[in-house]
Amino acid sequence: MSKITDEMIKTIGCECEVFEAGLDDDMLVMKAYFKELELGKKRGFMPVILSVSDTLLEALQDTLSLDSPKSVLSAKMPNARAEFTRYFNEIKDNKEVIGKFKSSAESLNQPISIWNHETKLTKKLILAKIPVKNPWEIFAYLPFGGWNSCPDALTMMAVAKLWFEKYGAVPCAISSDELEFFVGENPPKLSKDELLRLACEHHFFCTDRVEQCSEDGTIGSLAKELEGSTFWYFWWD
Questions:
Q1: 175-193 pLDDT, tens per residue?
Q2: Can you give the residue ranges of the DUF4253 domain (predicted)?
Q3: Among 52, 112, 116, 181, who pairs with 232 as Cys (CB 3.0-4.6 Å)?
Q4: CA-to-CA distance for 116 and 147, rounded, in angstroms?
Q5: Burial of residue 228 (number of CB atoms within 10 Å: 0-12, 13-18, 19+)
Q6: What are phi and psi of 125, to 5 degrees?
Q7: CA–CA distance from 186 to each of 45, 154, 191, 231 (Å)?
Q8: For the whole model, what pTM was predicted?
């Protein structure tokens, strides 16, 4: 086991499984994730796939040195629903930002962050069993974010709680600058208006997801992508 891997596991402080880099498909990793997702519902933990990197390790250590999981869990979360509503009302008539709802788009049905895009093979990964009952509490133990335009742990928790209650979405994969949610094998059927509203929430949460990672940099483009997607992807530059 590498020093970085060992340090990440010690920092996380829970049971983990390691997957070496170099797989040409994600079947082994995702099979293990889905198995632990079901077991966790009975045993009181949530699995998360972490990309092994010194950048992520340093971020976790720095944040955990300032705030313990207990202190984060006891803090008051922002009102994500109110913030999303405010933002939607602010931009809903901005045609340049909203764009057009596409007639077709490719859904996202596998995680992106677990791949090394240069080698086209999987990264070295840790499947961590975070000791929380509620999926949004993952961010108290893995305080991802709080740099550049990436939301801090409390905002992550508030958004994750809302999205779990509305859509059944759970945080499933984290790299140094990426976050992914698993929505379920049968994601909720949403109307065009509901998809646009959801895409607005994604844009508020992560501007880069729309402006740099969608087909034409508009909310309407992302909205169509979200239809039928079993994974939601976020990336902060």
A1: 999 999 999 988 889 999 9
A2: 127-237
A3: 181
A4: 23
A5: middle
A6: -130, 150
A7: 22, 28, 15, 11
A8: 0.95
In terms of residue numbers, what domain contains 137? Answer: 3-235
- In this predicted model, what pLDDT tens digit does every residue of 26-75 receive, in sequence order? 999 999 999 999 999 999 999 999 999 999 999 899 888 888 898 989 99
Please check whether residue 91 is in contact with residue 98, taking contact to mean a CB–CB distance below 8 angstroms.
yes
How far is the C-alpha of 13 from the C-alpha of 4, rounded, in Å?
14
β-sheet bridge partners, residue 181: 171, 232
To 10 degrees, what angle do helices 80-91 and 192-205 make?
Answer: 110
Q: Is the dihedral of CA 227, 232, 236, 237 positive or negative?
A: negative
> In whole angstroms, what is the distance from residue 182 CA to residue 33 CA?
11
Strand bridging mode 46-51 / 170-174:
parallel
Domain total of the chain: 1
Q: Cα–chain-centroid distance for residue 174?
A: 6
CA distances to 135, 161, 163, 188, 198 from 157, in Å: 9, 6, 10, 21, 17
Pairing relationship of beta strands 121-122 and 125-130 according to DSSP bridges = unpaired
